Amino acid sequence: MRLVIIGGGILGTAHALAAIGRGHDVVHLEREAEARGATVRNFGLVWVSGRSATELEITLRSRQLWEEIGGKVPGVGFRPAGSMTLVRTEAELAVAEAAVRSASAAERGFELLDPERVRAINPALRGKFLAGLHCSKDAAVESRQALPALRRYMEATGRYTFFAGTEARTITGTAVFDDHGRRHDGDLVLVCPGAAHAGFTRELVGELPVRRVRLQMMQTAPLGEPLTTAVADGDSFRYYPAFRGAELDRLNLEEAQPFTAAQHKMQLLCVQRLHGGLTIGDTHEYDEPFNFDVDEAPYEHLTAVAEELLGRKLPTVVRRWAGVYSQSIDPGAIVTRAQAADNVWVITGPGGRGMTLGPALGEETADLLSL
To answer: Which of 54, 94, 214, 320 is most exposed, with the fewest beta carbons within 10 Å of its own?
Structure first.
């Protein structure tokens, strides 16, 4: 078959990779010179630890696919680094203890470690904490370089063509007409618009059960030493479904987040990039219209928490940014797939799980559409 895929972010690229892997041809359109949305404005985390029980199977499958992809495409920067969620209070410790007792603890690679064992795995963590919830299944990729590396890999097959700076304007049957006046014919059209829910997407499928979520993040200069795992703080328990239960209810009841963290619905996540700098975040904002500027208070909070856990000053912050991603609001759906016409589908809404689940979602769509 010949597929025309619209949207060059992680979902569009993952669907192209799944199709190429099954022997099909792909024409891929991206309206920017390079994807600029949530695909590159994230941590690059392949995050198994926090996913719900119903999502665990597809998450572990995606983790396996990322490892396979990393073996074939070193440029994606895959590394099975794991994560360490550091707890600082007794209530947070109770949530971590419940996690290691859960039925899925072994599948997630959960282990609760005292500070000495935490530092044996990640010596850069010299700060104050009671324990660390280690998840050996978590991993990372380099979000800013993964997609170009995957496109080069697909181009080498001779069955993939990428059109940058190309916006789809209309679809007639399965022929896509772009803003350069070109026609792209295919047997199947997949539209992966990211957080662009209006305009072309709305013309195709109307209103979708999705919302947009805004976040703020920052990047430091090189740390000067390895941070061998991703790092999270105990506030992250509040935002991931894997940790729901009586212990989390008690944490939320007994320990309010600091004002800034609560106001911006914050957690600390920290990942070291291959160049040595740290990507640190994040916040969550759900009510549109979103601000066009970034607030300084969340960055001050993140800096203070990171420095407390590291036991040292952070390197200079070299850039800050905001991003917006698309999240399905259908409680039973990981992603929204809407059929616009015969052999034309719109796929969006993975939320903050796009980088984690991209390869498995591409594979799942390929199965659903019998590719």
So the answer is: 54
